[in-house]
Design brief:
The complex is a heterotrimer of chains A (about 210), B (about 100) and C (about 575).
Chain A (H helix, E strand, L loop, with lengths): L24 H29 L10 H30 L3 H32 L13 H33 L4 H26 L5
Helix pairs in contact in A: 1-4, 1-5, 2-3, 2-5, 3-4, 4-5
Chain B lengths: L11 H22 L5 H23 L7 H17 L4 H8 L7
Helix pairs in contact in B: 1-2
Chain C lengths: L13 H6 L4 H31 L8 H4 L11 H37 L7 H20 L31 H30 L12 H32 L11 E2 L2 E2 L7 H35 L6 H14 L15 H29 L8 H23 L2 H7 L3 H31 L5 H27 L18 H31 L39 E6 L2 E4 L11
Antiparallel strand pairs in C: 1-2, 3-4
The chains are: A mainly alpha (about 210), B mainly alpha (about 100), C mainly alpha (about 575).
C-alpha cells in the first residue's frame, strides 16, 4: 500500500498544504474507519439493548464457571495482545526489525488464541442447545440472536485483524511495509480490543444469573 | 512539518502500568456483577466502567493523547453525537413490552 | 516514505488503463457510466410503472418474457408493480444519486480541484468502484431469480422484507439478493468516504487552504463525512435482515404473524427497529444525494453569472449545518409508524430547523442571480432549473415536517412529489449541469448547445408536468405504492395519472436527446480548449482532458480564492486560482 499510495509525508513541505492533523493519510483513514466501525458496533449493541428491554422473558444463563472465567481469560488475552502490539510499534519505530516482527507475531498469535477460545465457547453453547433462533432455557430467542451476532461480528474483526497482522508482519520483515503501516495496524487492533471492552460487560456480565 | 513520524509517546513501562489498570477495571466489573445488583444499576456501572476503559485505550494505547488536539476534537464529538442520537429508539423499546402478544 | 512525486507510473495496456485502473479520472468515469446505465434502467422501470398506473389493464409487449409470473398476458400483476417500484427506487437512490454526483464527479474532480495528482489511496479507490459494480450485479440478479425482485420498496420494511417467501413473489431470493447488494454497497461507500476525506485534508497543493476550496470540493468532503457515519448503520441493519431471512432470527419479526395462511415461526422482534435503523441511515442518505448537487451547482453558477456568489462562507456553513442536522431528523419518516408520539416532536423540531440552512442557501443563490448578466448555457440553465425545483421540492418538505399534517399526507403522492422534486429532479439537474459543464474537460470535446437547450426545456417543463400534479393527488388522498386505483374516491383521479404518464414518457424520451448529444459529442464534438468557460478553479488550469497525473508534472500553486469573476484580470473578467496577480479588494 505504501508504494503506490500518495500520502502527505515529509519531504515536500512547501509543495503542499499542511494536513490539519499532522499525521500520514493512512493513519487518518484508519482513524476514520475506526469511528465508522464504532458506529456499526453501536448500532448492533443498541439493537440488542432495544430487544432486551422489550423482552420480559430475557434469559441470564451465564455462570462464573465456565463462561465468565473464560471471558476473563479472553479479555486478558486481548488486552495483552494490545500490549504486545504497543511493543511492536515501539520496536518498529526504533528500527529494531526482528523485535518488531516478533512482537507482531505475538500479537497475531494472541489474537488467534482469543478466536480459538471463542470458538470453543461457541461450540459449548451450541452443544447446550443455543442457536441464533433457539433458547434451550425457554426464554427469549433474542438471547441467542444477540449473543451470536454481536460476538460473531467481533470475532470477524479479530480474525480479519489476525490475517492483516500476519501480512504486515511478513511484509515489514521483507521491507515492503514501514513503521507507519505497523502503527496503522495497531490502531485497528486496539480498536478491536476496545470493542471487546463493551461486548464483555454488555453481553457477558449483563447476562450473569 | 515532519508528518512521517507520530509524536513521541511514553515507554513500554508506562503502557504496562496502563495494562495493569485496565485489568483492574475488568476485575471491578466482574466483582460488581456478582454482587447481584438490580439490572439497571449494574448496567449504569458497567457502562461507566466500559467507557472509562475505552477512553484509556483510545487516549493511551491508540496514542490519541500524543496527536494534535484537533484530531481528538474532530473524531470523538462526531462519534459521541451519532451514538447519542441513537438514544431516540429507547422509548419504543420500552413500549415494546406492552405490545407483546399475551401468549408469548 | 512515498512522496507525491513518486505516484504510480502511467499504466500501459488496455486493462490497466480502462478496466482495473487506479486513476481517479477513469474511476470517476466508470462511476458515471454505471450511473447512466442505472438511470436508464430506473427510468424504463418508471415508464412501466406509470403505464400501469394510468392504464392498469394495459398489456405491455414483452413484459411476460421478462417475468411470466409477474405479467401473465403482458399485464402487470400488482405484486410485480411493487417489484418494479422497489428496483426503481433502489437503483435510483443508490446507484444513481449516490454514485454519480458524489462518487462519479467527486472522484474525477476532487483531486484536481485541490491540486493533487490522484486520490490518497488509488488502489482502494479502484476497489471501491469494483465493489460498487459487484453490488450492482447482485441487485440486477434479483430480476432473474425465481420469484423476481423484492416488492418491499427501497425501504424494505419488516416484516414484509424479513419473513421470507411467504410474504409474496420476490420475497425469497430477490429480497435476500437486495439486502446483500446493499450491504456490499455500504462497504464500497465506506472505502470511498475514507479516500475523499484523506484527499481533501492531506493532498491540497500549496496555497489551497480549506477556505480556498471550491464549493463542490466542500460538498464532497461534507458528504463523505456524512456517508462514513450513515452507511455504518445500514450495513449491520442489512446483515440483521439477512439473518432474519436465512438464519431464523427474529430481530424485526414479531410473533403471531399469519402470512399466506401460515403462522410464521418467528417471535419477539420489532418492525420498528428496522425502521429506526434504516432511517437513521436513510435520512442522511438523502442529504448525501443532494449535497454534491448543491456543491456542483454552486460551483458552476458563478462562472455563468460572471460574479461570485453572495456569502460563500455562509453557504459552506449551511452545507455543514445540513450535514450535522441530518442525523437528528430521521423519525420524520416514522410519524405514523407507531413510534412513540412524543418522539415525533423531538424529530419534527430539527426537521423544521434543517429547512433554515437550506433556505439560506436558496436565498444566497437567488440573491446572487438577481441583477447578474447571465450567460445562458446548458450548464447554467440546469443550475437555474435546479434552484427552481429545489424550492418546489423543499416547500413540500415544510408540510411533511409536521406530524399533524404528515398524519394525513404520509404514504400519499404528496410525499412522492416531495422526494422526486428534491432527489429525482434537483439532484439530477445537478448531475446534468455537471455533465454539460465538465464533459469538455473530461473528454476534450464540447457538447452541442442547441441539443442541450432542447433537452433542458423539455426536461424542465416535463418534470413540472410530472410531479406538480402529484401534490394535488396527495392532498386528495391518493395513496402511494398502489398498483391500481379501484376505490371510488380514487377513480376520478386516474385522468391525472394518465396526464402524468404521458408527461413522463415525453420527458423520458427527451433524455435520449441528451444521451445522443453525449455520445455524439464524445466522438464528433468540437475540440474543447483548456478553459472553454473562462472559469477559475484548478480543473481549468490543465488540458482537456487532463494528462495522466492531472497537471503534467507541474505542482500548482494557488494564489486566489475560487470565484473571482467580474474582476479585471490578466485573462479577462476573471482571475484564475493559480494566477499570482494581485487583486484589488472589492
Amino acid at each position: 500500500m505504501s508504494q503506490v499510495d500518495i500520502t502527505a509525508e515529509s519531504g515536500h513541505a512547501g509543495l503542499m498544504e499542511d494536513s490539519p492533523y499532522g499525521i500520514p493519510s493512512g493513519k487518518l483513514a484508519m482513524w476514520c474507519f475506526v469511528i465508522s466501525d464504532a458506529v456499526t458496533f453501536s448500532a448492533v449493541l443498541f439493537a440488542y439493548g432495544y430487544l432486551r428491554i422489550g423482552s420480559p422473558d430475557w434469559s441470564t444463563p451465564f455462570q462464573f464457571s465456565p463462561t465468565i472465567l473464560n471471558g476473563i481469560g479472553m479479555t486478558f488475552i486481548l488486552l495483552s495482545s494490545s500490549l504486545t502490539m504497543l511493543a511492536a510499534v515501539e520496536a518498529v519505530k526504533a528500527g529494531r526489525k526482528s523485535a518488531g516482527f516478533g512482537w507482531l507475531c505475538a500479537t497475531a498469535l494472541l489474537g488467534a488464541l482469543f478466536a480459538a477460545l471463542h470458538l470453543v465457547e461457541w461450540g459449548r453453547m451450541i452443544d447446550e442447545g443455543w442457536r441464533l433462533f433457539q433458547n434451550p432455557l425457554g426464554g427469549s430467542v433474542h438471547f441467542g440472536a444477540a449473543f451470536f451476532s454481536i460476538t460473531g461480528l467481533h470475532l470477524l474483526h479479530v480474525v480479519g485483524g489476525v490475517c492483516a497482522l500476519a501480512v504486515i508482519a511478513v511484509g515489514y520483515r521483507r521491507g515492503g511495509y514501514n513503521s507507519i503501516d505497523v502503527e496503522v495496524a495497531g490502531i485497528y487492533w486496539h480498536f478491536v480490543d476496545l470493542v471487546w471492552m463493551f461486548v464483555f460487560p454488555l453481553v457477558y456480565l449483563m447476562n450473569v444469573q | 512539518m515532519t508528518t512521517g513520524e507520530s509524536a513521541q509517546g511514553p515507554g513500554m513501562k508506562f503502557f504496562v502500568a496502563v495494562w495493569v489498570g485496565l485489568m483492574c477495571i475488568v476485575g471491578i466489573e466482574v466483582i460488581i456483577t456478582f454482587r447481584h445488583l438490580p439490572p439497571r444499576e449494574l448496567l449504569v456501572w458497567l457502562l461507566a466502567l466500559a467507557f472509562l476503559e475505552a477512553g484509556i485505550a483510545v487516549w493511551y494505547f491508540m496514542h490519541l493523547k500524543y496527536e494534535r488536539a484537533a484530531l481528538a476534537w474532530s473524531l470523538l464529538p462526531a462519534l459521541a453525537f451519532v451514538v447519542f442520537m441513537m438514544d431516540h429508539i429507547w422509548p419504543d423499546a420500552f413500549r415494546l413490552l406492552s405490545m407483546r402478544l399475551l401468549s408469548n | 516514505m512515498s512522496e507525491a512525486a513518486h505516484q504510480h507510473a502511467e499504466p500501459t495496456g488496455f486493462i490497466r488503463k480502462y478496466i482495473f485502473s487506479v486513476d481517479h479520472k477513469v474511476i470517476g468515469l466508470q462511476y458515471i457510466g454505471l450511473g447512466i446505465v442505472a438511470v436508464v434502467l430506473g427510468m424504463i422501470l418508471s415508464w412501466l410503472m406509470r403505464l400501469h398506473l394510468g392504464w392498469s389493464t394495459l398489456a405491455i409487449p414483452g413484459l411476460e418474457k421478462l417475468s411470466p409470473a409477474g405479467a401473465p398476458g403482458n399485464v402487470m400483476t400488482p405484486e410485480y408493480y411493487l417489484s418494479l417500484m422497489t428496483m426503481h427506487g433502489t437503483l435510483m437512490v443508490f446507484f444513481v444519486l449516490t454514485n454519480v454526483p458524489f462518487a462519479g464527479f467527486g472522484n474525477y474532480f476532487l483531486p484536481i480541484q485541490v491540486g493533487a495528482p490522484d486520490m490518497a489511496f488509488p488502489r482502494m479507490n479502484m476497489m471501491s468502484f469494483w465493489v460498487t459494480f459487484t453490488a450492482f450485479l447482485v441487485l440486477i440478479a434479483a430480476f432473474f431469480v425465481p420469484g423476481g425482485p423484492p416488492l418491499s420498496g427501497w425501504t424494505a420494511y419488516a416484516p414484509l422484507s424479513a419473513v421470507g417467501q411467504d410474504a409474496g413473489p420476490g420475497e425469497g431470493w430477490g429480497q435476500t439478493l437486495w439486502a446483500l447488494s446493499i450491504a456490499i454497497f455500504c462497504v464500497a461507500q465506506l472505502l470511498g468516504a475514507l479516500n475523499f476525506i484523506a484527499t481533501t485534508l492531506d493532498l491540497r497543493t500549496k496555497g489551497m487552504s480549506l477556505a480556498r476550496m471550491p464549493f463542490s470540493t466542500w460538498a464532497w468532503f461534507i458528504t463523505s463525512v456524512i456517508g462514513l457515519l450513515a452507511f455504518a448503520v445500514l450495513l449491520p441493519a442489512c446483515v440483521l435482515l439477512i439473518l432474519d431471512r436465512t438464519a431464523g432470527t427474529s430481530f424485526f419479526i414479531p410473533g403471531g404473524l399469519v402470512i399466506s395462511d401460515r403462522l410464521q415461526a418467528h417471535t419477539g422482534g420489532s418492525p420498528l427497529l428496522w425502521q429506526h435503523l434504516f432511517w437513521f441511515f436513510g435520512h442522511p442518505e438523502v442529504y448525501i444525494a443532494i449535497l454534491p448537487a448543491i456543491g456542483i451547482v454552486s460551483h458552476i453558477l458563478p462562472a455563468f453569472l460572471r460574479r461570485p456568489l453572495l456569502g460563500p462562507r455562509v453557504l459552506i456553513s449551511c452545507l455543514a449545518a445540513i450535514g450535522f442536522l441530518s442525523y437528528m431528523v430521521w423519525g420524520h419518516h416514522m410519524f405514523v409508524s407507531g413510534m412513540n408520539p412524543f418522539s415525533a416532536i423531538l424529530f419534527s423540531v430539527p426537521t423544521l430547523v434543517i429547512t433554515i440552512p437550506a433556505t439560506i442557501a436558496t436565498l444566497l443563490w437567488i440573491g446572487s442571480v438577481y441583477g447578474a448578466r447571465i450567460r445562458f448555457t446548458c450548464a447554467s440553465l440546469f443550475c437555474l432549473g435546479f434552484i427552481s425545483v429545489f424550492i418546489s421540492g423543499g416547500i413540500s418538505g415544510f408540510f411533511l415536517a409536521q406530524p399533524s399534517i404528515d398524519t394525513y399526507l404520509h404514504a400519499t403522492y404528496f410525499v412522492v412529489a416531495h422526494f422526486h422534486f428534491v432527489m429525482g429532479v434537483a439532484a439530477i439537474f445537478g448531475m446534468f449541469a455537471g455533465i454539460y459543464f465538465w464533459l469538455p474537460k473530461m473528454v476534450g470535446r464540447m457538447m452541442n448547445e442547441t441539443l442541450g437547450k432542447i433537452h433542458f426545456w423539455f426536461t424542465f417543463v416535463g418534470v413540472y408536468c410530472i410531479f406538480m400534479p402529484m401534490h394535488y393527488l396527495g392532498l386528495a388522498g391518493n395513496v402511494r405504492r398502489y398498483a391500481a386505483f379501484t376505490d371510488d374516491y380514487l377513480a376520478p383521479l386516474i385522468p391525472v395519472h394518465q396526464f402524468i404518464t404521458i408527461a413522463a414518457l415525453i420527458t423520458g424520451a427527451a433524455q435520449f436527446i441528451f444521451l445522443f448529444n453525449l455520445v455524439w459529442s464524445r466522438f464528433r464534438g468540437p475540440k474543447a480548449t483548456e478553459n472553454p468557460w473562462q472559469a477559475t478553479s484548478l480543473e481549468w488550469s490543465t488540458t482537456s482532458p487532463p494528462p495522466f497525473d492531472n497537471f503534467g508534472g507541474r505542482q500548482l500553486v494557488v494564489h486566489q480564492e475560487p470565484y473571482l469573476y467580474g474582476v479585471e484580470g490578466s485573462a479577462g473578467d476573471y482571475v484564475m486560482q493559480t494566477s499570482p496577480e494581485t487583486v484589488e479588494a472589492r
